[in-house]
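Hey forum,

I'm writing up a methods section and want to include a predicted complex as supplementary material. The small molecule is zinc ion. I've pasted the protein sequence and the SMILES. Can someone with a working setup run it? I'll credit the forum in the acknowledgements.
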Amino acid sequence: MNLKRFLICLLLLSSIALAQHPAPHKKTARAAPVTRPKADPATAIHQSALIIDTHADTPQRFLDENFDIGQNTPASDGHIDLDKIKQGNLGAEFFSIWVEPEFKGDYAQRAMDLIDSVYQQAARHPDKMTMAFSADDIARAHDQHKFAALMGIEGGHAIEDDMRLLRDFYRMGVRYMTLTWSNTNEWADSSGDIQDPNVKHHNGMTDFGKDVVREMNRLGMIVDISHVSDATFYQALLVSQAPVIASHSSSRELTNQPRNMTDDMLRAMTNNGGVVMVNFYSAFIDESYRKASSDPEKIRQRDAEVAAYKKAHPHPDGSPVTYDETAGIEKKWAAQFPRPPLKSLIDHIDHIAKVAGIDHVGLGSDFDGVTSLPEGIDSVADLPKITQALYQRGYTREQILKILGGNFMRVMHEVEATSKRLQDERKQSDALSFEDIELMVGNRVNPAQLVDRIRQHGVNFDLTPERRTRLKDEKVDDSALDAIVKARKK
Ligand SMILES: [Zn+2]
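Reply by user p_vandermeer:
Happy to help. Structure tokens for the complex are below, copy them as they are.
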């Protein structure tokens, strides 16, 4: 008999003895019950949840600062690292492949460098982190207690107006694309410059832009409407056959920011079946902070300081000075305005849950891309405080699990199912799409052959003026254009 078993026996014997001969003095004064700390319900909910955040700008840190996600850095440097992820019980993150417009001429290259930086992190930490490309991948990583890394392109200009690049990005693992960033591109308007008369706008999206949405549906890449103009938003919803997401957008009713969503847009999201992931940035969730920080004179001072820094620190190779290099200036500037209370963030979640419905709200922090967060939220490690606050507001376990990740998982499954259906239909359909024509042109099919194929198969699209110009630019001759008009199948 080992010592442990001996001690247990002794304990049992003495307790039997005690039961038979209760101590006389303890008759009235009963021993206080052992108080074990009761796991509080909000903590239990948070720890059992599959938590998904759909927007963080950390890849710039990976690439431009050589930051390793395994390093534990102060929250003032960065909002995300593996330790903080564990503390916050974050299950999956969509790392933003954000291409700064300053990289004009090198958009795709910059996007690919950022994509590579995410894969490099996963390769360095295979025991704790894994790349994920589907809803099932996210669930599998969760079962294995690994953090799942996904990627979303922020800013449609990254595809350089080329459908083939869009497909290549899908093949590289990108699973959503924000149609625009703050800049209007060649095919979709942004909320960021919609008031600027010097920018050429499209009244929403061009035909090519709508084809981008269709091709994303077919690929299984989630259409992200954060940042886009209101017209682009409504058009994207009309065209998209799959639910869309706002990867990091809050409510305009509560905080009057043009890139936040109006109640009407929120209701449109309900009909679409999509999900709005609430952005945590102070200026998007708190009207007082927004007003204070949009003082034109203060903005002018900040912009001047950033411009001066850029001028004083040019890159020897001529590449643009990146956001990360000037983020310190921006953070210092933002700190002059008091941080809003956590309540402001919870109000946005609450409002979207009430207007769009509990099935249409989630979390899109914008960590590592914003200069101010509400009080108490210093990094991803503080996510449990959000669960705590929702629980205190009366949200049930089931509702909280939907907000933390369940809603997003549903949408991702639906996008994947739509993609499968569209790909199956395409195989059965004989008519050529505009895409097919462009592909043949790109592959240098000779003009006579092109006309033959168009006559033989028919086409499933209208030759709008924009498409006609596009094909003419690609040197398609008039005989093929005539054939397309005649071969339209209804
Ligand atoms: Zn953004």
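Some notes you might quote in the supplement: The chain is about 50% helix and 10% strand. Residues 6-28 have pLDDT under 50 and may be disordered.
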